[in-house]
Amino acid sequence: MIKAVYPGTFDPITKGHIDVTSRARKLFSKIIILIAHHNEKDPLFSVEERKKMIKESVREMKNVEVDSYDGLLVDYAKKKNIRVVIRGLRAISDFEYEFQMALMNRKISPEVETIFLVPHESYTYLSSSLIKEIISVGGDVSHFVPKVVKKFLKKKLNEND
Ligand code: COA
Q1: Is 38 a catalytic residue?
Q2: Which domain holds residue 26?
C-alpha cells in the first residue's frame, strides 16, 4: 500500500489539478491532496473554503483525501509516513521551479521521492490565477473548473464588490 501526497496552493483547484489527481489515484493506493503554504502567495480563498471545494470536486474518487498543513511538506510526509510527492508538469516552463523544489525536498528528506505527472494537454495552459482573472472580468470558466469552484468564485466576487 503506497500513499502519495499531492501538495499545492489550490486557490482554487482546477480541472487540471483534478486530471493529475485522477492519474495519480490509479498508481497509488491513496492520494492526499494537501493544501500547503506558499510563502509568496496570498490566497483569495481560506484554507477551509479550498478544502470544501476540493472535497466536493473529488467526492467520487474513493482513494483521495484532502488535508492542509502550514509547515514543511517533507515534515508532513514524515508525520504521515508518506514517501511519494506528486507534482504536475504542465510545460517546460514549470520544470526549473519543480526541479528546484524536488531537489530541496530531497536534500531535507532523502527518503521522499517526487514523481511528476503530465496533465491532459487541454489543461497545460491552465492556472488558478488565470481562472481568477477570467471570472473577475465576467468571463466563463465552466470549462476549466468544477461546478462547485465556479459557485465559490462567483460568491467571492459578490462579497468583494
Ligand atoms: N492544472 C492547472 N493548474 C496547475 C496545475 C495543473 N495540473 N499544476 C499547477 N498548476 C498551477 C496552479 O494553479 C498554480 O497557479 P497560480 O500560480 O496561478 O496560483 C501554479 O500552477 C502552481 O501552483 P501549485 O501547483 O498549487 O503549486 P504552488 O507552487 O502554489 O505550491 C507548494 C507550492 C505549496 C507545494 C510548496 O510551496 C510547498 O511545498 N509548500 C510547503 C512548504 C515547503 O515545504 N516549502 C519548501 C519547498 S522546497
Answers
A1: no
A2: 3-160
